[in-house]
Amino acid sequence: MSDSPAQMGSRRAREVLGLSAIHTPADLRRAFREAAKRAHPDRPGGDPELFREAVEAFHVLQAGASQPRQMNWPPVTAPARAAGLDLSILGLSPLVALNGGPVEHGLPDGRRVRLTLPPGLRTGDSVRAGEAELKVVIRSDGEVMVRGDDLWMTVKVDPRLLAEGGRVAVDTPLGRRVVWITRKAAERGLVRLVGQGLPARGAWREGHLFLRLAPVERKVDSAARTLLRRFTAAWAA
Description:
Elements: H1 10-17, H2 25-39, H3 48-65, H4 77-82, E1 89-92, H5 94-99, E2 101-106, E3 112-117, E4 126-129, E5 132-138, E6 144-147, E7 150-157, H6 159-164, E8 166-172, E9 175-181, H7 183-188, E10 190-193, E11 209-215, H8 223-236
Parallel strand pairs: 1-5, 7-11
Antiparallel strand pairs: 2-3, 4-5, 6-7, 8-9, 10-11
Helix pairs in contact: 1-3, 2-3
């Protein structure tokens, strides 16, 4: 049985939506759309309770994002070690790796620091935080993943585009892009957007964005609706 609205905390809300502790408002919106789409009661396999949880989690995290951040965190060394966390690892989402920006991290000595990261970090890079050296690890956020210099994401498209090709608007980490899907790309189920991956940095080259193409699942019409549509078409003729 799920938590009541008064009981759901930010940690549970992130679990429901599959978010890490470090996420942007755009990450929150995307995660909510995906969770709501999967659980919507009108979809085959939808679950009203999971849908309600997704809505509740969205409101919890949205409300938390509007609150000013406090800088008086309690020490995190003991809980982190109890959980088996390696605090010398700095885990980043693909969006933070792409754009850089401020992040918060607990150090092995119990202090919590706020770092401003440059864009274009890769797994294996090092970041200094005072006397501590943190190793960067970029983790998938459930929608976008990083492979070397490249970003990868799955895009749902109309099955006709996979058969005939055509244009489709895609929300990418760099904003909305209009993508041309050729028949060859449709056959491979893959489109490459040159230079749309992680930016060049030091010895790292500029990456690309790869879009995996997957057909949108269409709802199967009920027998009654099919008969009604046929009747309407016959009557109009």
